[in-house]
Design brief:
Blueprint: H1 2-17, E1 26-30, H2 38-58, E2 71-77, E3 84-87, E4 90-94, H3 95-100, H4 106-117, H5 128-143, H6 163-176, H7 181-190, H8 198-203, H9 207-216
Parallel strand pairs: 1-2, 2-4
Antiparallel strand pairs: 3-4
This protein binds zinc ion.
Zinc ion is lined by residues 110, 114, 132, 135, 226, 231.
Length: 234
């Protein structure tokens, strides 16, 4: 018991002094428009507070740079269609989606990843596919690793399809070539310096060649889908 307590204190101290980790923000569910979702909102708050530092660690992100405000609202929108999005350091979630999909906490993790990403505006270039792929990579391979999804149809799919397809491609490329590839892309994207040639720099092969190899490999099932493409950031 004492050992466990000591280990816990050491862990907390390490967390506090981790060079990449600022004080993690608090998350506050705003369910004023839909008070019946308050219990769900409380779970989402707790989930975000546990997973925010985890995602910072997964992406090896420099969280001290352009830090979030101390309190991040999770606003449940009564009249919103779609699923969820992040804008201006706030998470917005469609109440109707939660009511019809009460088990979909993976969606919260996807949006939370966008909060960790917080790439400079208009500097991700045409890499929106990668931004969404990374969010589903975190969701699918870290938060929901046991969820099985349909195989990718390579007759029509491309790495730029974003979401679960890009997530599966990133996962495969990490396993085959560069274990911290997604974290490296996080650094480049945060610096506004991501370009497709970085696949060559970090794996030795260009992205089209990697995609062909991925397709030929029989491709593992994709995991962690965002059901609708509604995220607006960036
Ligand atoms: Zn998204």
């Amino acid at each position: 018991m004492i050992l466990t307590l000591r280990a816990g204190i050491v862990f907390l101290l390490l967390l506090c002094f981790h060079p990449c980790m600022a004080n993690p923000p608090r998350f506050e569910a705003d369910t004023r428009q839909v008070p019946e979702l308050q219990p769900w909102g409380k779970v989402a708050e707790a989930l975000c507070e546990v997973w925010y530092p985890k995602i910072v660690g997964i992406l090896k992100s420099n969280d001290r740079e352009r830090p979030l405000p101390p309190v991040v609202p999770i606003i449940f929108e009564k009249d919103m269609d779609g699923v969820a999005y992040v804008a201006e350091d706030k998470m917005h979630i469609a109440a109707k989606w939660v009511t019809s999909h009460p088990g979909d906490f993976g969606m919260v993790i996807h949006e939370l990843t966008h909060l960790v990403q917080r790439y400079p505006e208009n500097k991700a270039g045409d890499a929106g596919w990668l931004v969404e792929g990374i969010a589903d990579y975190v969701r699918g391979y870290h938060f929901e690793p046991n969820v099985t999804n349909p195989r990718i149809n390579f007759k029509t799919a491309k790495y730029t399809d974003a979401y679960k397809t890009t997530a599966a491609f990133l996962r495969w490329t990490e396993k085959r070539y560069t274990p911290d590839l997604v974290a490296r892309f996080q650094t480049e994207l945060r610096a506004g310096k991501y370009r497709d040639y970085l696949f060559v720099k970090y794996t030795g092969k260009d992205v089209d060649t990697l995609w062909r190899e991925f397709a030929a490999s029989g491709a593992e099932p994709a995991s962690g889908a965002e059901v609708k493409k509604v995220s607006v950031r960036p």
